[in-house]
Amino acid sequence: MHVARVRSRHVDKAGQVREYESVLLRRSFREGGKVRHQTLGNLSHLPTEVVELVERSLRGQRFVPVDAAAALGRGLPHGHVAAVWAQAAALGLPALLGPPGRPRDLALALIVSRVLAPASKLATLAGWADTTLGADLGVAGASTDEVYAAMDWLLARQDAVEAGLARRHLAAAVNPDRMALFDLSSSWLEGSRCPLAARGYSRDGKKGKLQIEYGLLTDPAGRPVAVRVFAGNTADPAAFVEAVEIVRERFGLGELVLVGDRGMITSARIAALRELGGTGWLTALRAPQIAALAAADGPLQLTLFDQQDLAEITHPDYPGERLIACRNPLLATERARKRTELLAATEDLLAPIIAAVAEGRLVGADRIGLRIGKVINKYRMAKHFDLAITDTTLAITRRQTQIDAEAALDGVYVLRTSVPTQRLDPPGVVAAYKDLAHLERDFRTIKVDDLDLRPIHHRLDDRVRAHVLICMLAAYLVWHLRRAWAELTYTDQHPPARDNPVAPARRSAHAAAKASRQHDPQGRPLRSFRALLTHLATLSRVQVRFPATATDIPMLTEATPTQQRAFELINSPIPLTLR
User: Of the candidates 216, 179, 238, 106, which has an alpha carbon nearest to the alpha carbon of residue 469?
Assistant: First the structure.
């Protein structure tokens, strides 16, 4: 049997030609040597899709009900994993970590997971089975002991990994200015058994918690290169000494210039650098040192800033160094406002004590002094007040002369460097120092915005070091992803160049427009970096099961325009699997 289509023409009384097509179900056979056709039915009035189904069935094709044709197996979030993995592969991170093997796969999974969904190691281990990362790297069934062993393996290779990053980003060929940034931060720990845990100055404002400190070394653009963990009570200068040793001895970069803030690179550390030779510095002076330069006979006079915001000066206390004095009028206005508000707030705290003494409710010089001591320096303004205390009286007055002297230097800062003028002009010195903002961005990435390094739950000092190293390598990935995906986020892709390096940075008109419209010119919605990863995670990989063939085929859901563009920006197709 077969389906036959018979076309016929008919001319009606009006002379119009009408064409017809009849769809017939026929049986063909031979009789007496001739082919005969027998019409079994007229299918012309059936829907087209039914006719096609009958025709294909008669040709030998087999059909099953829709609900039995295929079944969807488990789907796993894949897009965010594939994107971060593709970026890691493009950066050569697997080869940088070490030779292939189970420890490297686990270490890579820990780094990628820190970007995708920062959590404790146990939570990360449990989550591997819920994304394609665990299945494709074969780490979904890893044990806790294996994860900790992989952390130990990675820590043992830290020097080699960081040396590779230093060759990429600090060598003369790629870093002609020969500069690196270094700064120190801290994070608190849970528990009290870690040998590195100690009480110190908390940069997180987490009082009463044991903490560790860690120093981060980056290139001038803020790419993380190396990290070192210190006890929680380590002073900034001591950390700087180790950073110098890493740069000189382990990376072999003796001609590098280290850029750090005024608390990091002190006069004592500069004296040590002079003795070592080779390593340069760029930092800033402290407030007392600036005040000394601004004395009546000093070189730092406000008339320097009548025509411009920066000037190069010299002083015998800084032999062989260049001093770049800068004044930022906006910063001066802001500091004056803050000082006025803090002085007023301190006087508000002192007013009830003054009233209590005047009314005789608080007597005794020692008791009065104790009450004052609890509040007078809450806003760090005690230096601006004179106190006269007796058993029955209390007089508090402002040191107006000192306040005026400090106010005169509002917005003024002085940079000091060993870099000669031929290599870096005064505006270049200011711009290099302001590059420390990139390092601060890295600390926010590591601690707050993306990687959530804190709090730390490990007890062994080597595990704490491995945890911080994982976060640093994850920050290296995030640095490149943020730059690649700037088009899809609120990141300023074209920050305007500053004619005056002292002036504060400003957003471009393009970035302001993105923030206002919340969509790019193509109509795609803009997202934060973390929200973009969440959106990529909706691109799933689903197992499609065909019961008739007993075969499971992995397939990706359809990518959105944003997901498609995210992979284009990192120069990668959307992979079905990671390997």
Answer: 216
pLDDT band at 69 (very low <50, low <70, confident <90, very high): low
Rounded Cα–Cα distance for residues 547 and 111 (Å): 39
Question: Edge to edge, what strands does the sheet with 540-546 contain?
Answer: 71-77, 540-546, 551-556
pLDDT single digits (tens) 434-490: 999 999 999 999 988 888 888 888 989 999 999 999 999 999 999 999 999 999 999
CATH of domain 159-328+411-481: 3.90.350.10
Eight-state DSSP code of residue 307: S
Write down the pLDDT at residue 523.
Answer: 85
Band the pLDDT of 385: cuts 50, 70, 90. very high
Quote the tokens at residue 309: 């915001």
Cβ–Cβ under 8 Å, residues 535 and 563:
yes
Provide the 8-state DSSP code for 131: S
Q: What is the pTM of this model?
A: 0.84
Domain boundary assignment for the chain: 2-63, 159-328+411-481, 330-408
Q: Integer distance in angstroms from the first to the last C-alpha of the chain? A: 50
3-class SS string, 323-362: EEEEECHHHHHHHHHHHHHHHHHHHHHHHHHHHHHHCCCC
